[in-house]
Amino acid sequence: MAAYRRILLKLSGEVLAGGARFGIDAARVAELAGEVAGVAAAGVQIGMVVGGGNFFRGVAAQSMDRVTADHMGMLATVINSLALSDALEQLGHPTRVMSAIEMRQVAEPYIRRRAVRHLEKGRIAIFAGGTSNPYFSTDTAATLRALEIKADVMAKATRVDGVYDRDPLKFPDAVKYPEIGYSEVLSKGLGVMDASAVAMCRDNRLPIIVFNLNTTGNIMRVSMGESIGTVIH
């Protein structure tokens, strides 16, 4: 039985690129869609936010105007959201892409009450376009959407299996935290999420589960309440 009624799943854009660093790997997207559809079939209501780093990262565009660069990054999240939506629909699971930047030809405008209604009807809601505002990351956008839809938890999928005291990809002796407090994440500058996103979760008591997306079945394990990754609470 699922441990959560409603979750917000946050994915990085890079994960859609598979083994490449750029673009969309159709096989990887299909694999992810299969996992997400399985969780939805178990009765969990799923909202999703995906980054755009496989196409464009606003903060990395040093030579560009920051506002322009951030808007380009938001548009990249729309491309990724449409790819995920298509893969889920091919598996027979209904979705709705809802964009904070209005583009009615390709996505619904984001309206909170409509998003909640989609979830209640069993559709997977994919929230694109960030917050529509520059200077806010997709971590912050995911936190905002999780709070708005009253998700029970935010599940942040990463390349590592939790929160460590330093980067485990660079330091083999890094120590993993099975659980950790919001304030400790902020005071130690652990960098698992943007500070603004962690602070919003802290202020609204929204737990965060950080887990490794590269382990097949982990999305289901998180949804079933299995003890994997790191819980920030």
Question: Top keywords for this entry?
Answer:
single chain; about 230 residues; alpha/beta; Carbamate kinase; two-stranded antiparallel ribbon; about 35% helix
Question: How would you summarize this macromolecular structure in one to three sentences?
Answer:
The chain has 233 residues and is of the alpha/beta class. The protein has one domain (6-232): Acetylglutamate kinase-like (Carbamate kinase), CATH 3.40.1160.
The Rg value, from CA coordinates, equals: 16 Å
Principal-axes geometry comes out as: globular
Low-pLDDT runs of 5+ residues are: none
Mean of all residue-level pLDDT scores: 95
The CA-CA distance between the termini, in Å, is: 23 Å
CATH topology: Carbamate kinase
CATH class: Alpha Beta
- As a percent range, the share of helical residues equals 25-40%
Describe this structure in words.
- The longest helix is centred in the middle third of the chain and has 25 residues, at 66-90.
- The chain is globular.
- The chain has helices at 26-41, 66-90, 112-120, 138-148, 182-187, 195-204, 218-223; strands at 6-11, 45-50, 95-99, 108-109, 124-128, 153-158, 163-164, 176-177, 179-180, 208-212, 230-232.
- The model has no long low-confidence stretch (mean pLDDT 95).
- The two termini are 23 Å apart.
- It contains seven helices and eleven strands.
- It has a single domain (6-232), classed as Carbamate kinase (3-Layer(aba) Sandwich).
- By secondary structure, the protein is of the alpha/beta class.
- The strands form two sheets. Strands 4-3-5-2-1-6-10-11-9 form a nine-stranded mixed β-sheet, with helices on both faces.
- 46% of the residues are buried.
